[in-house]
Design brief:
Length: 309
């Protein structure tokens, strides 16, 4: 019974060594007597017991490896701390097994050195603005170097780019200065626009005032001309009427009488408003004047009587 049990277990062990099931997501590297024999794809396979063995197992799915933070120096001598993620996939199980000892660690180290080299070609501002092109450059360089390892680097993504504290402080000052500069430029543009608008308003106001003055002078000139014309016409009509009146009998006497009355009125006005006393010589002249007025009055009366007859 013991022998049968041993024989049964031995058969089970042989069958276990004889049959191999490779999962869908893996490939197995088989060695025969310590020498590479083949790479088994997913499925059911037979092995030679005690001769063939599974030396390496590789996952054929895409892998994500974390690249630890590292210190880098940019082109403008700025210290940065950069980390990222590298995505790769095993394409050849044989090369992944015998081409390098540990392709994962090698891919991470290569990503770090390539990232330092690529960042050294860029300035600080370019590392932020050209992140996509930086990722493409790193992928291209890693994929070229990792081709003998049987892996394919699909992409690389930078997670964080962290400048040093001194650089951050300097950038904050620079951003503050840039904001002040933009604010001053905005204020200057606003003041410029305001001055332009004010000058245009003053110019338009001056134009309007000059146009108003011009129109005022034109209107005054037209009014003055009309006034002179009306006065002249009135004087002409008055003179014409005076001439007609003088042509009538007694017209001259009436005209002299009217003039004398006006003269007396004006003299009386002057004497009432003047502060200078009239000398006696002037009184003599006035006496002669009144005598002449009396003669004119008699002449007018006489001519009036003749006219009545």
């Amino acid at each position: 019974m013991f022998v049968l049990t041993i024989a049964f277990l031995f058969v089970i062990f042989i069958l276990y060594k004889l049959m191999l099931i490779v999962p869908m997501r893996e490939v197995h590297v088989i060695e025969r007597l310590g020498k590479f024999r083949t790479v088994l794809s997913p499925g059911f396979h037979f092995l030679v017991p005690f001769v063939d063995r599974v030396a390496y197992r590789h996952d054929t799915r895409e892998e994500v490896l974390d690249v630890p933070p590292q210190s880098c120096i940019s082109k403008d001598n700025t210290q940065l701390e950069v980390d990222g993620l590298v995505y790769l996939k095993v394409m050849d199980g044989k090369l992944a097994s015998y081409g390098i000892e540990n392709y994962r660690r090698a891919a991470v180290n290569l990503a770090q050195t390539t990232m330092r080299s690529e960042i050294g070609k860029l300035t600080l501002s370019q590392t932020f603005s050209e992140r996509d092109s930086l990722n493409e450059s790193i992928v291209r360089e890693i994929d070229k170097a990792s081709d003998p390892w049987g892996i394919k680097v699909l992409r690389y993504e930078i997670k964080n780019i962290t400048p040093s504290h001194n650089v951050i402080h300097t950038l904050e000052k620079q951003m503050e200065a840039e904001r002040r500069k933009r604010a001053e430029i905005t204020l200057a543009n606003a003041e410029k626009a305001a001055m332009i608008n004010m000058s245009q308003g003053e110019r338009q106001e001056a134009i309007n005032l000059s146009e108003g003055q011009k129109q005022k002078r034109i209107n005054e000139a037209i009014g003055t001309g009309q006034e002179i014309s009306i006065v002249a016409n009135a004087k002409a009509q008055g003179m014409e009427m005076i001439c007609k009146a003088l042509a009538v009998n007694g017209g001259n006497d009436a005209m002299n009488m009217l003039l004398k009355e006006q003269f007396i009125g004006q003299v009386g006005k002057i004497l009432s408003e003047s502060q200078v006393s009239v000398v006696p010589a002037e009184m003599a002249k006035l006496e002669g004047f009144f005598e002449g007025m009396e003669q004119v009055t008699h002449a007018v009366s006489h001519s009036t009587a003749k006219g009545a007859r």
